[in-house]
Amino acid sequence: MYNIVKKIMAFSLLICIIIIGNSGCVNQHPEGDKKTVINDLRQIPTLKNPRVVATSMATVEIMEKLNVDLVGVPDSKISKMPGKYKNVTKVGMAMAPDIEIVKGLNPDWIFSPVSLISDLQPKYSNANLRYGFLNLNNIPGMYKSIKDLGIILDREAEADKLIKDYEDFMKDYKEKHKGKKKSRVLVLMGLPGSYIVATNQSYVGSLVELAGAENVYTSNSDQFLNINTEDMLKKNPDIILRTAHALPDDVQKMFNDEFKNNDIWSHFDAVKNNKVYDLDYKAFGMSAKFNYPKALKDLDSILYGGDK
């Protein structure tokens, strides 16, 4: 009885964490052959060795760490698929998985990042799929998801080890950064032909704050904002960080052309002081990943130089 109650509690938490900041819950399960789990929580303990589809590489990485077998994975042209899933059926791109392929796999669960919930939830619901959206917008959210997945997918030992490693790392990391001066940072997320501002709610923005800096653009809900350069200049950041959502070579060229040809950038102190840095998009992308220690180390070099 205790195990059933624990699983029910964990599932309820997973439902809540799919909304950023634990601000609310949504029904992850449509009515149909697979009943709404909110009304039939007793189903959860019966799902032994569930058939799981992961639609993004960040989600695949979590499943690999939890030693979960997958029946469907994304078709990624950028990130390398773990060997464990090399021969697993491809279900399409993360932003637009092929629902017919997914349905043909008869999955018990399909998991995606919460950043895609508005696009994917209606499709999953219409297809009568049991789905969950993981909060990968920040590191704490990722580990909250891992904790609940560990219980739901019967991988508690693996999840507990990952969480302990994270807690040990963060305890040491925060201790090293006590009392350090906070730089004011502008974070730009580039897409081919354009760019947006990353707030504290985005993954890259949350890393900046975790590293002890101040993001000059904050929000209670929005991960990214469309801001004109005149407003950015008023913020006058000490440092400008640039990263890419996709096609990093094209984005790098776009940023270089923008900063060279748009005269307003020459008025930023960060530009005058050569404090503009391009980040590795693999470590500073859209979703939280397990390479966050490398990302934080890169930020340490930028924010503190030799002062480690």
Describe the structure.
Its cofactor is heme b. This is High-affinity heme uptake system protein IsdE. With 308 residues, the chain is of the alpha/beta class. It has 2 domains: 2-168, Rossmann fold; 184-304, Rossmann fold, CATH 3.40.50.1980. Helix content is 40%, strand content 15%. It has 11 helices and 13 strands. The protein has helices at residues 2-17, 57-65, 99-104, 117-126, 139-152, 156-176, 203-210, 229-235, 248-261, 269-272, 292-304; strands spanning 52-54, 72-73, 89-90, 92-93, 96-97, 109-113, 131-134, 184-191, 194-198, 214-215, 224-225, 239-244, 276-278. The strands form 4 sheets. Strands 8, 9, 10, 11, 12 and 13 form a 6-stranded mixed β-sheet that branches. Helix 5 (139-152) packs antiparallel against helix 6 (156-176). It starts with a helix and ends with a helix. The model is unreliable at 1-46 (pLDDT under 50).
- CATH topology group of the largest domain: Rossmann fold
SSE arrangement, N to C: HEHEEEEHEHEHHEEHEEHEHHEH
Helix-and-strand structural type:
alpha/beta
- Under CATH, the homologous superfamily of the largest domain reads Nitrogenase molybdenum iron protein domain
